[in-house]
Design a protein that fits this description.
Layout: E1 9-14, H1 17-25, E2 34-37, E3 45-48, H2 50-53, H3 63-69, E4 74-76, H4 80-95, E5 101-105, E6 108-112, H5 122-137, E7 141-146, H6 149-159, E8 164-166, H7 172-176, H8 189-197, H9 203-207, H10 211-218, H11 220-229, E9 246-256, H12 259-279, E10 282-293, E11 298-308, H13 311-325, E12 332-340, E13 343-344, H14 356-372
Parallel strand pairs: 2-4, 7-8
Antiparallel strand pairs: 1-6, 1-7, 2-3, 5-6, 9-12, 10-11, 10-12, 10-13
Helix pairs in contact: 4-5, 10-11, 12-13
GO biological process, one term: SOS response
EC number: 2.7.7.7
GO molecular function, one term: magnesium ion binding
Length: about 400
């Protein structure tokens, strides 16, 4: 009887990524509390160093409160261009050495090393890869090696900063047992409050609740939560190259040269793909605009951009591409917008230029769209509905 091959899954997480990138360019920041975000008091903390966290500062906190908690910190404006560049550098380092890599966010990676033990030890290989990343990028990175994505991700938090952990096969449930229920990915405030009111505080207690009871309590999510509490996770490592794009295009009822109409359509489509990005909790690193003329000639232009899911960033780039693309002054038959090079991590949405009010505005707009449909909220300039 053949035994199922034990999986070897690694979760890599760049430590305080934004801060680490800033420190590469300014060693005077080493060892100091550093807070990155909007410059004004109405801004939001995008990232902070471990030194700043000791004062109670955390991501998404209003900058005004952060200044009160840690007035001695060094406050910096974010640089998404640099973050994207270093993220891509680390991605290339890993992909050159590992056959199956999932880029989960701008600073997180899953590696499937299953079967590689036949050639060399996974533990040794991963430790050497960590050192290679530090040497070639200058960025500290933590990781955990385990039998599935769930355990490796949870354990990476315990490995930080700049550390490593190995959870042997068969030890998954024992490792999780003493941890607080909030450590399970996907357990939010609502679920946490419900479970704690029932006296469920640790993952061990959660794992002992009968599955039917969990299903009655939380439906299908209860079944999945029970599996996680028992250390079970069959989710595959999805290769980064298989990440799909999001796009929208339209063939007009009649060919047009109406620039006002074309710009309104461009804005409407860009808003739509940006909303879909945020709805899927993703960021994109590439934007493409497509144009088809009346004679059926089709042209496209694309540009690599700092990872984003913000309307105003994508709109600005889409307009730039359209201006460069539309050079024949011929009637237009089709227009399209597409984003690609996507990674997870909408929680890392660029907060550097956004006030807390702007972030809440995006959230409010998306909430309305989810409930009433995408057309429920649009920029006024995109409401030119005259189909040429």
């Amino acid at each position: 009887m053949f035994r199922t091959m034990e999986r070897n899954v690694v979760h890599f997480d760049l430590d305080t990524f934004f801060v680490s990138v800033a420190r590469l360019g300014n060693s005077a920041l080493n060892g100091k509390p550093v807070i990155i975000g909007g410059n004004s008091d109405r801004g939001v903390v995008a990232s902070c160093s471990y030194e700043a966290r000791k004062f109670g500062v955390h991501s998404a906190m209003p900058m005004k409160l952060a200044r009160r908690l840690c007035p001695s910190a060094v406050y910096l404006r974010g640089d998404m261009d640099s973050y994207s560049r270093y993220s891509n550098l680390v991605t290339d380092i890993i992909r050159d050495r590992v056959p199956v890599v999932e880029k989960a966010s701008i600073d997180e990676f899953y590696l499937d090393l299953t079967g590689m033990d036949r050639f060399f030890g996974c533990r040794q290989f991963t430790a050497e890869l960590k050192q290679t990343i530090l040497k070639e990028s200058g960025l500290p990175i933590s990781y955990a090696l385990a039998s599935n994505k769930l355990i490796s991700k949870v354990a990476t938090d315990d490995a930080k900063p700049n550390g490593q952990l190995y959870i042997p096969y068969g030890n998954e449930k024992g490792y999780l047992a003493p941890l607080a229920i909030e450590r399970i990915p996907g357990v939010g405030n609502k679920t946490s409050s419900l479970l704690r009111r029932m006296g469920v505080e640790t993952i061990k207690v959660l794992s002992e609740i009968p599955v039917p009871m969990m299903e009655n309590l939380l439906g299908k999510n209860g079944i999945e939560l029970s599996r996680k509490a028992n250390g079970q996770d069959d989710a595959p490592v999805v290769p980064y190259t298989e990440q799909k794009s999001i796009g929208k295009e339209e063939t007009f009822n009649s060919d047009t040269i109406d620039m006002k109409f074309l710009y309104s359509e461009l804005i409407r489509m860009t808003e739509s793909v940006a909303f879909q990005l945020r709805n899927q909790r993703r960021l994109c690193g590439c934007l493409t605009v497509k144009l088809r003329y009346a004679n059926f000639d089709t042209v496209t232009r694309q540009t690599m951009i700092p990872y984003t899911a913000n309307d105003h960033v994508l709109l600005s780039k889409a307009k730039e591409l359209f201006v460069k693309l539309y050079d024949r002054r011929m009637l237009v038959r089709l227009l399209g917008v597409r984003v690609s090079h996507m990674v997870g991590g909408f929680q890392q949405i660029s907060l550097f230029d956004d006030t807390e009010e702007n972030v809440r505005l995006y959230q409010a707009m998306d909430k309305i769209r989810k409930r009433y449909g995408e057309p429920a909220v649009q920029r006024a300039v995109s409401l030119n509905t005259n189909k040429s």
